[in-house]
Specification:
Length: about 300
Amino acid sequence: MRSPLSIVIVNYRGARDTLECLRSLDAVTYENFSVFVVENGSGDDSLDVISAFHPQHYILHSMPSAENRGFSGGNNIALRHIIEHSSPTDPGYVLLLNNDTVVAPDFLDVLMNAAEHHPEYGILGPKIHFFGSKTIWFIGGKLRQCGTKGIHVHYQAEDRGQFDTADILPTDFVTGCALLMPLALLHRVGLMREDYFLYFEDVEWNMRVRRYGSRIGVVPGAVIEHKVSRSTDPTSFAYIYYHTRNGLDSGFRQGKGLVKVCVLVIALWTVVKQYAKMPVKRDHKWERAILAGVRDFFYHRLGKLA
């Protein structure tokens, strides 16, 4: 029998997308998994829509939350339940999966086969296309600027099979859009940081896993599609703010010695750059969001943006 797998999906005002994701999971060929959907305080009919779906090939658990606890807090509701109902010696895996994804029927077979044959990898992820296309959204990530920024490599490249040169492609991090981790490692590493609320908590989680000596990789033979930013606006104040603040905080927390100094220099230089831009721009939303993020990094103000 294949290793047991628990898939965690967080829904926030996206029940129709979640339902499409759940239907695509019902068509996968992997046979030993269950799905936990956390309804993250949407305040709409999401829970009713999700609960009305009855999959044929897996068990679906609905886990309502009275409030929106962000990406990390929503995932942690299910992850905490999984930890409490298992032991560090139990076999099996957990997979974080965005609700606005659609998966290929064989993606779990390919991804789990790589995980089972390469235990040196603590985190693995699939290749991710933009929805309805062969354009790359994620095939690996690189950490930049002393760990304060994470970028997607080959972002928006056309996938012609050029990335399918190995079973696993080593990478600095795997996006929380689709992230597989052994259950035993989850017990050791613990939950994601809830005080980040949104963004960079998955990168920080990857960085913690690397400190335990585990490798991180992408399995290009496992493919899913991502609708991208269905619930967030990448130009919004909150998006820019959280990425700025949480990136600086993660880089500083994970760094040692000169790396911490590097993060502080980056933060100060960022402030100088934003003020330098203001006289030549009319709309200062971007600059204000970055400055607020840097300010709250220095004051150690984390959590949800007020």
